[in-house]
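Pipeline run #58 for the internal structure catalog. This entry was flagged by the ingest filter as a single-chain record with no existing model, so it goes straight to prediction. Upstream metadata was stripped on purpose; only the residue string is passed forward. Reviewer on rotation: M.T. Logging verbosity set to normal.
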Amino acid sequence: MKLLDIGEVSKRTGLPPSALRHYEEIGLISSVCRNGLRRQFAPEILTQLALISMGKAAGFSLDDIARMFGDNGQPELPREFLHQKADSLDRRIKEMKAMRDVVRHVADCPAPTHMACPTFRRLVALAASRGRISKNPGRKKSEFQ
């Protein structure tokens, strides 16, 4: 088995070595040994890092992703949790489509000012009444727990 050093893993994945070291510090990945000061990884690390990247893109926290790997680094994906996450993504997609429509309306509104537009005023009032005005709506530290 040919080992990959941290520089090669970084080059192949596009992740900086600092990210790889951080992932190792938090137990998300493991190096198999060192060659001098350089960490050495099994080739399977590339697949594991691709799965981590996919999880991050789907909105999973690093803690959530860590729980999706067994002690051997192989994926152990909890199907019910994945269904819950897919449902959450469906809700978020619906919200984002609605927000896109609002932005398009605001951009194309023929009223002389946005506050003169009855549709815009109604949308602002609706957002305020739903409590949608926050810094980070709907985000939890970890949805896995």
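catalog note: Confidence is low (pLDDT under 50) at residues 134-145.
catalog note: Residues 79-108 form the longest helix (30 residues).
status: ready for reviewer M.T.
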